[in-house]
Every structure is written in structure tokens, then in C-alpha cells.
Amino acid sequence: MSSAAPAAGTGVTATARITAGADGSLPVLESDGPFALRRTRCAVPGWTRVTVVGAMSAPLGGDRLAIETEVRDGARLLVDAAAATLALPGRTADPAAYALRLRVGADAVLRWLPEQLVSVHGSVLRARTTVELDPAARLVLREEQVLGRHGEPPGTLFSRLTVRRAGRPLLDQELACGPGAPGGWDGGAVLGGHRTTGQLLVVDPRFDTAPAPVRLLGDHAVVTPLAGPAALVTAVAPDALALRRILDAALADLAPFTAP
């Protein structure tokens, strides 16, 4: 793990790395900066589990952070987190950057299920997730954003998710919220006054022959089939608990394959 303190007025630059093998091994488990990666117990046989533990407050303004993950052919990997991630103001006015770079091989499965990302008042964060999938890969990816801590206005959050399958685009979308975002983000066409938003992406070759039908999940969530073997759940909610309940119910319905 990197232990060097940043110079005054600068942020931390760190990249943590995970590589999972089909035999349950972790050839690479490399912590760095605020990311302490821990192999944790998984109750379901055949799965490897890694928990991301925060070793320091991050991301702060000016930080450049990344987690790179490779799930090799035939491997099954669950990545979760010990706590929510707080985007915080830093000692510099520069925005923080947080990148997730995920690669999933043939007949491999990745369940990426972190805790919420909280956009704290005064922070500016650019979050970018890029995923490369083999045609025979399966993926469950959850993202949850909370706009401000209890009783405070949000920070500024730019979040982009790009997924490619067999080198071809499957999903590419961006969300901008907070005082530095373009106008209208809190209007009826986007968040409608809600303080939390999230999505659940499930990619599974079985959707080639049986696509997920379009349907509403309550008043503020929808399941949408993608032009590929995937389904996307998009939701808004008044708080993090309500959002998690929506996404958990969707996860149980859309990803029935044996998993933790």
C-alpha cells in the first residue's frame, strides 16, 4: 500500500488491482492509497470474494483514484465494500477522479456490489466506470448515489458508465447532479426532487433468447432491456434505504444464477 502523504495543494494518486482466477485464487490483490483490499469469506462454493475497506478519507478534491479488476476465464468474483464512499472537499479546488476499470473473461461472472457513493456538500467528483466483457461473460453491477449527507445540500457529481461486450458498445450513459451540473438535474425529467439515484445492470447471455420485459418497479423505478443480452434497472428514491430495497428486489428477480 502506498503510504506517501500528498504535498500541500495536491491530491493522492493511487490504483488498486484485483485479478481473480478460475481456481479461486487471487493472483493479484494489490492495495493502494485509500483502498485496502481484503479477501473475505464467501458462503457460496466456487466464488471468490474481495471487500474494499477504506484506509483513509477519500476521494478528496484533487485525488486521482482507480480500481482495476480482471476476472479471468471461468472465475466467479464478488466485490463489495465495508462502508459507503464519501466524496469530500479537498485542499485544492480541483475535482476528484475515481475510475473503475473492469474486465470479465469467457464463462466468468463478476458481481460488483459496493456501498453507496455520497456526494458531500462542497465536493466535486468525476466518477468513471468502464467494463469490457467477453461474449460469454456475466455481470451484475450496482451503482448508488446519495446527494448530500442528512440535512445538507449535495456536492457536484459527474458519473459515467460505459460497457462494451465483445468490443461493441452495450451501454454508455452519464449523469450529472449538484450545483456544478447543467440545469434541470433536479427537475421532473431527472431526479424529481429525490435525494438518491441508482442503477442495476445485469448482463447474461440468457437474455439473448428471453429478454427482460419493460416494467415499472413501484412509482420510481423501471426495468429496461438493452440492445444486447442485458437489463438495466434505473431508480430514484427519497433515501438510501428505499433505493437499496428497490435494487435488491430487482437483483433477486433478474440475476437468479447461484451467487452470494
Key descriptive features of the protein:
disordered N terminus; 7-stranded mixed beta sheet; 18 strands; 1 helix; 260 residues
Write the layout of secondary structure elements.
Blueprint: E1 13-20, E2 28-30, E3 35-40, E4 48-54, E5 64-71, E6 76-81, E7 85-87, E8 96-104, E9 109-113, E10 117-119, E11 124-133, E12 138-147, E13 156-165, E14 168-177, E15 196-203, E16 215-216, E17 221-225, E18 230-237, H1 240-254
Parallel strand pairs: 1-5, 4-6, 5-8, 6-9, 7-10, 8-11, 9-12, 10-12, 11-13
Antiparallel strand pairs: 1-2, 3-4, 12-15, 13-14, 15-18, 16-17, 17-18
In short:
By secondary structure, this protein is mainly beta.
Major beta sheet, specifics? 11 strands, mixed
Q: How confident overall, as mean pLDDT?
A: 91
Number of domains: 1
Strand proportion, as a percent range, falls in over 45%
Percent range of helical residues: under 10%
Query: Unreliable stretches, pLDDT < 50, 5 or more residues?
Result: 1-8
Number of strands: 18
Spell the H/E element sequence: EEEEEEEEEEEEEEEEEEH
How many helices does DSSP assign? Answer: 1
As a whole number of angstroms, the C-alpha radius of gyration is 18 Å
State the separation between the terminal residues, measured CA to CA: 28 Å
Family: Belongs to the UreD family.
GO molecular function: nickel cation binding
GO cellular component, one term: cytoplasm
Subunit structure: UreD, UreF and UreG form a complex that acts as a GTP-hydrolysis-dependent molecular chaperone, activating the urease apoprotein by helping to assemble the nickel containing metallocenter of UreC. The UreE protein probably delivers the nickel.
